[in-house]
Design brief:
five-stranded mixed β-sheet; 7 helices; eight-stranded mixed β-sheet; single chain; 28% helix; D-Maltodextrin-Binding Protein, domain 2; alpha+beta; Fructose-1,6-Bisphosphatase, Chain A, domain 1; 2 domains; 15 strands
Amino acid sequence: MSLIRPMELLEGALDVAMSTLSGLDEGATQEVHGGRVTDISTRGDLAVSQALIDYFKSADAGLVLLSEESGRIELSEKPQYLVSFDDIDGTDNFFRGRDILPYCTVVTIFEGRKPCYRDTLAAGIVEHRSGTRWLAERGAGASVSRRGLGPRRASSSARQVLDRRSLVVVDQYSAKDLAGRLNRLAELAWVKDFGSSALHLAGVASGLFDGFVNLRHKAHELAAGYLLIREAGGLLTELSGRALDDLPYDFDATLGVVAAGSEPLWRALLGCLS
């Protein structure tokens, strides 16, 4: 078993995801059914998932994998790390608007076989159309880079006030029955939805967005957002305001969350949703 730094493993995985998806023809957007598919999946999802599994196997690093397409894969009886990944977050964007709408790959590396959110060691998100890449390492900060440009330190928005100049992204599709809770927010803020939770989380971490709300968030991308936003100086909590730190990471769980670049804006968002 080789010893490999989490960030090295993470960046290699994002490289594999990007090269795999960019190398596929137009048939990559063809929808597929069966297996663990719960909403929509494409040939591109399956190709990226398999490429990442093959990459992690070849790394010989002693891993347990969690993926949306393939479930839990035990590659070692004594793993160094648990790795969670979402091959394409924003699959509907990829399916309907490849090369037009945003879609991302998310990889998160944890310490231990049954981690809590505080055990997140490294996290990365890449948006395939632009090549923008967000990286975070526990205790070492977060960075953002674009294709052809070097990395810069990622910093969350310093916006303090919730008003029509506050750009707040809201994932609505998974919580239609709770949509009434968003009415006040829609009155006060500039609300958008770009169809990729990973992009929303990474955007809060890098100041692209001021805040983020999801009333029923899948855990797939959540730990990556947790580390990116925390390392960039922002806040991401449950709707009650409770920190995620000690919450066990359950890949198949859903959780209502709110994030913001500053504490005053985070408090204002919580007040809107109470």
